[in-house]
């Protein structure tokens, strides 16, 4: 049991602190013979990397991935894959204030209360920088999915920033990669840019966000009752991301407001198998994938580190006013998009391997026997 | 690794099908010397038990708990506790339709797709009846908490049924046990009763619900970065409950709409330690409890089994119209209240044991050294 | 994590005390569609059952297995299988002495030291009676192997009792089931019978034993580096059996005395794949099965409960002379034979499922490509 | 679940191949505030390091440890500790033969059969070089034991090399560190040196060994029934080491030859608690430590890589004669001494943490109440 790990057969353990020498992920259980090299992982890290535009923190690091084990002649060997990213831009500085003061809304105080010691440099282990290791591990998961379940596609995007939501009528898959918010609504993206500039520069504030992640092409039958459910593992995966405060599948929290008649996804027989009239379930029934798109959303709270002063205390109990001056994302949710994708990819791969182990991938037949 | 288990040191595995001879929970890792007997568990099962009023299914079973192991002379011994509930009211009947037809919104189709076999009687393993085993295990967790962390109190209640929500201004802790909805707003409870009667009898429909669970008195320091977070485990625990589609902690999904200034819980030094100006965080920072109330909500979708006809298919691919005539809860969320409480209690106990193991319970001091 | 469980994907948790109401095993991860009923398990329990002859304890219980879940219409469903055996012959008696006194060589004292409470009736959880649950779970493993790997055969037998060993020149597979010792050497069996009668009745003593278990027909490729090795899991499985003090694979402890030239199993190409000149390795290389017979031995210490007086102490620290009068096996190793078989079957099944999950069962080719 | 990990709360995952860029260990669950730096680990690595004398392989690498995470200002923080050792002496060479041919007694063939790919350079993941990572992790375990259980001392030594065993009458703790075999019998050590020189240079052979590891000062109460036993975990830990073929606790395999009267460790009340007349049990009763010395032995087979030709096959099925010319230990058991110590230390720490979590360290009292 490791509290810094996730996954059953595809098992990822991340390690490292924000301002230590390096951080990374130990990936165990990746199937053998999967084509993999640094470039296949770097592309996802570049997507998450800070400093690419003024919307995210100006910390400028290459986040270059090194594969230290588990790959031979361009293919995975079935042994643990060690992924390492050197921290190159930890500016030497006076951490005195941070060392003694607890930032409101931060893990500073709870780490201290739990451990009686904390690496306060840049937030240490609680920094969002940890998610770089998740994205790297997600790159391995994507490579394995490409080899084993080539039809699966995992896409994430932002659907809300603060009080501003996208207009689903303008949803455009192609727009996602064309704006710094991974926003599928180009008009919303333009509006968000203006808003975020004002928020950061003038309001000295930050803002929350809602991310949606969709997996297409996932075969029916992945998942398991009743605690190893696909949605249970997805919920845990997303909730484990820094600053996430809520997770929902399909209708999600709105399901509380629906009636059974409205919520039921009716079933019809299509040319290639069962089809559904709708997807209130978000692609999961009883914890097992139905073959529909898997759809989830998670909420990312606003960055706690802001330029506006907030009341707090020091370790010695005296009052302090906290103003965080460092380089911080005004909307940490933006970078949560590739992180959510990475976690989704890892969970799907994991359940594919589990299902293969437990059932051998046999499926109950639906429809008349092939003649 | 077991996909029918949850918990790290306090490890619960549930087993059993709705219409099999029995169901239960294997509870491993309960500390020794905890006073425990059947009565201490039965009280929680009685709270969840169906057939108590017309708001829940009329299946009438005593749900009598038997402790088969792990308890000696009224105390736990540190060995596995086996909890068994006999199924006594599985009416013999013709299951023919259910066996061949997939109910919309149900796990019928995904179990079949995954396993190529399913115990269709009463939903088998996917039945909400499985939650009786969770409530029994939660009874053990509560007994252990009472012995080890006597200040902890876990309470759940319904805050929404369909489109109808409670008025927080009328929130009354004492009202919760006085109505069949575990509703803290007595006026809302009266309204819900009328609505649910109509829904079931006239509309032949069902409805979703939102449950809130609060844990008071949880000490600071429980939880762990970064995948064994207290909120990660709570999210997984709640999402694993049948029909749950979303989970949120503190501000939850609404955190996406907030700014950092609004969301930060400012910290002050109180007479007995740190105090917070608000609880947007829901009592958890960086995955670790802060000492504030832990507050979560989860959404339960409306029961799929309704009297209104819905379109579906049979195993052979032919179209079918499904009308579920059996005894079913019009709002399965009602009975999810004690289930959510049970899961919360189990997770808190588990993290208390984990913390004791990993840190020995040492805490960083806040405030001036005692003179 | 459960300390009363073993297995990765085929996960068994046993529960129950010697003189409680029942004991059993929760079996999670059994593949679906495996034919299974009580009779298929009972046959193995009958093999282990005490009271069959004067060589084992006279406790006379039917040890009737009940399947409480996970099986539907004679086949496994992929959900947890609960196996229960009622304890029917716990004679009411005065346990006063046992309650206060620690038997030498027994877990009495360590259970008390660890937990500060112990179910002393019949040894409680530390009783060899727990192995009935293992044998039942092994019955499930055997059924699954029969369905999924039909060529696998697991056989155990006694090769040593006290200082008396079998003569390998007289090894006869057919003899094993024809004597109460599961001894493959009929002459040794006759001698052992006389010896054990004398030991029990006249010498008031007990004696140790060595068990060998062989698995034939296990395909190459099961196991994994470097802590999930097949031999690692076999060693753990056997060492977890009551009274076992040593485990060895292939040459085992004798490998310390060999040279590399003597120990190497040379490889030749046979008509159906690689063949080996010998099997010093016991069928496992680098933690992975080679296709040869898997051969292990484990040593069972003599029963601590004997009629000869031994010095000990009571809980209050006063000296006591312990004479155990109850019904006890003079050679508990005899009944360890079916237990060792059960554990071997469970480990092999588990690694078959693991391998299927992790590699999909793909194998490196040896030999010329098929033309 | 990770097949490259061991431990429950103190969880170690090793990674890396013999000739890859680096290898290491991810150590999760180390308690916070343990003093730790590179030097504290390096001392154990230096003990295991090859090239120190002519008894071990001449591969000459500094095996310099780097701590990449989890330590702050000289103390552990409770977050994962990443330990890395760069591989600096992988001579570039022609691996052609090894790539296509399976060495007898080696994992070459089973890795190929399982994965269909293998990093053949220096044995890849199956190389004994992996044990450097174990020793590093063991260094962390030792540091934590020193902080939490300062009385515990773990010592290993060789008691047999080939057919040559030590004379226990000459056992001298101080001799262990004074010869290249970690042999407690100085006369035997001298004899072994001559023998091993001849074996390597003239006989072109290798030889097996028996290692004994003793832990003193382990408190009573560590371990747990019935699969999380202390001896179960020790057996697994030792069997997981490369080339180990057998493990035994206390009397071990010899227990099969004893009678109950001879084997029982009688108990007496000493001034500070229970004392035992002997230690046949090896310090463990019912899977739980008794406070006596924990004593185990494990057998290491002779190195398979020898200069004498052995028959084998190539991947294409053709016959090959294998002569291994590289740098190889004639007795790999020598370097297994610090590895066995490291595993013992890790298991004891793990069970200390587990016990603290599960029981809070409460103990049953033995002796009269303090007046």
Feature tags:
FMN (chains A, B, C, D), Chorismate synthase, AroC fold, five-stranded antiparallel beta sheet, 27% helix, chorismate synthase activity (chains A, B, C, D), Chorismate_synth_AroC_sf (chains A, B, C, D), 371 residues, lyase (chains A, B, C, D), 22% strand, 8 helices, alpha+beta, NADP (chains A, B, C, D), homotetramer
Summarize the entry for a quick read.
The structure is a homotetramer of 371-residue chains. The first copy, chain A, has 371 residues and is of the alpha+beta class.
What does this structure look like?
Four copies of one chain form a homotetramer. By secondary structure, chain A is of the alpha+beta class. Chain A has a single domain (5-359), classed as Chorismate synthase AroC (Chorismate synthase, AroC fold). In chain A, 27% of the residues lie in helices and 22% in strands. Chain A is built from eight helices and 18 strands. The first copy, chain A, has helices at residues 38-48, 96-100, 108-115, 131-148, 186-201, 230-239, 260-263, 333-359, and strands spanning 5-6, 11-16, 22-28, 65-67, 71-72, 75-76, 81-86, 153-161, 164-165, 209-216, 244-249, 267-270, 273-276, 284-285, 288-289, 294-300, 310-313, 319-322. Chain A has a five-stranded antiparallel β-sheet, covered by helices on one side. In chain A, a hairpin with a 2-residue loop joins strand 5 and strand 6 (75-76). The longest helix of chain A has 27 residues, at 333-359. The interface between C and D is large, with 126 and 126 residues. Chains A, B, C, D: Homotetramer. Chains A, B, C, D: This reaction introduces a second double bond into the aromatic ring system. Chains A, B, C, D: Belongs to the chorismate synthase family. Chains A, B, C, D: NADP(+) binds at residues 48, 54.
